[in-house]
Structures are given as C-alpha cells and as structure tokens.
C-alpha cells in the first residue's frame, strides 16, 4: 500500500517477470516503491545489505532492512526516507539520559518497537530472515525482503580520525572523516541464506538498485558465494547509477569512491560492476559518458534517474522493466 499521495497506476500486462533486486537503503527503496507499482509485488525479491546493522542500547538495529520494509509497507517517513512517518522520540530521549550518551542516532518510538521485537526474537534463536519475514507479514508487505546473510557483519570505516562503525562515520561525523579502508567484519565466515540463493537462482532478471556500490551493494557481493552466483546467473542483470554528474543524490558515495581510488562518476560505478552486469542505466545529465561506458561491454540506457516524487519513481521503474525486456530479447537472439 502506498501512502505518499502518488498516482495509483495500472500494472502493465507483461510485468510478471520474477525480479530480484540488490538493495541498500533510501535510494534503493525509492526504486522499489516504483517497481511494486509496475509489477505485482509478490514477483519481487529484495536482497538487502545487512552490514549497516548496529547494536545500540542493547538492541539490534538493521537500518537498510527496515527502510526497505517500511517503504514497501507505505509507512516510511517521506521527508527523511527512513524511520516511520509521524513518529515521536520520547523513548530515545529517556535512553540517552539513562545511558548518559550523546544523541546522534535517531530511533523513533514506533521504530523502537521493531528493534525490541527483533532483538527479543534473536535471543530466542530466530534468524534475521525469519524475523524479517514475520515483520513483513504483519505490515502487509508481499514482496520478499531478504537479509543477504543471517550473520552479523558490521561495516568498519577506517578513517584519518580512527576506525568507526559505518553509522558513526555517516551520522555522528556526517561522513567528514577521510576514508582509508572499508572492512566488513567477519564476512569471510558468513554464508548467504537459502532464501538469498533461491532469489538469485530463480530470478528472471536481476536489478542492482541505485545504492552506494561500496558500502551497500559491496557487502552483498562480498558474502562468500554471492558474486559467483550472480556471475553464473543466466538472467539479464542491470544496474542503476547512484552518481549523477559526479555527485551522489543521497549519502557519501561520491566522496567514498574518490577517497578509495575510484572515479566518482557513473563511469566509475560502471567499472565496479562491469564484469557482473549486462546493462547500465545512467541519468540524462551523464549522457556524454554513454559511449565510454559502452566500451566496457555494457548496454547503456539513458533516462531521468532523479526520483523526486511518485511519478518519477514509477517512470524509472517502468524504464528499468523496459530495459530488462530489451536485454532479455538480446540474450535470446544470441542463443
């Protein structure tokens, strides 16, 4: 259910392709919101980054999983793109007082209920996948929201100001420290869930959402076996650039790319994904990069990728579906 006042548009009659999306947080959620308007949501599986997960106040918080879930439930705060609409923060005020800590990570009262429930279920032996499934059922989300792994694999950002959890780097320090290294803790021992494996193997098309390629999509691809499964998948694979004219619309992807040695451009993102995907969608403002990106062996599609409202989300999702169809036809013609 969608509650942002956007248009309720008809589902195209041919939009029954089983889509598996790889997703981070806010940018990915916008595209997913569009996708469930152009296709039946039960045909959509979303493999979500869990390396943003953090433990605070004795609670296990899974930001990207919650952003995706709240968005698909029509409950996300439309202003921030995270948290729940019209939430209050009385509980957090008390927690900060009790722990005598700085308030830098906002947790709304109804949002806290999610984290309390998740933490309690983890202590009872349930997996993040099982817990997420139940939360989705309770919130009426019919797309499959799948943590990429049930292991705890938090991201450490090594900076010129020391090592810190990604959430501290992003929120507490506003992504100002210079990034020297990115580590996904314990990820070499993690395993992809059976649901993640099934979503990749059974997909008829795979979409890499416009998320940070280093700390949102990167952890998904680093879970042992996931990249190989994607490389072997016969389904057409397409990615959408999160960088437009050298800038990230949301988050620090541009500065992180530059500080870790990759071009902070749509071309730089395409180079990261080049051996994994068949097609790449770039914004019309980067049309001058189309020819250079095509030299990587990718089919490049150009459109408006700025999802400023419901109409733009729908339009980009529909364009993505049409690009997938074109890639499917191209694959069939080579058989």
Q: Helix and strand succession?
A: EHEEEHHHHEEEHEHEHHEEEHHEHEH
Residue share in helix: 25-40%
Total count of helical runs of at least 4 residues: 13
What is the number of E strands? 14
Strand order of the largest sheet: 5-2-1-9-10-13-14
Strand % is 15-25%
The shape is: globular
**Would you tell me the overall average pLDDT?**
94
Would you kindly provide a written description of the structure presented here, covering whatever features stand out?
This protein has 335 residues and is of the alpha/beta class. The chain contains 13 helices and 14 strands. The chain has helices at residues 26-38, 63-72, 90-99, 109-123, 128-139, 166-172, 194-201, 217-222, 226-232, 253-259, 266-273, 290-294, 310-334; strands at residues 19-23, 44-48, 54-56, 59-61, 144-147, 155-159, 162-165, 179-184, 205-208, 237-240, 243-244, 247-248, 279-283, 299-303. The chain has a 7-stranded parallel sheet, sandwiched between helices. Strands 7-6-8 form a 3-stranded antiparallel sheet. The protein has a two-stranded antiparallel ribbon with strand order 3-4. The N and C termini lie far apart (40 Å). The relative contact order is 0.15. The model is unreliable at 1-13 (pLDDT under 50).
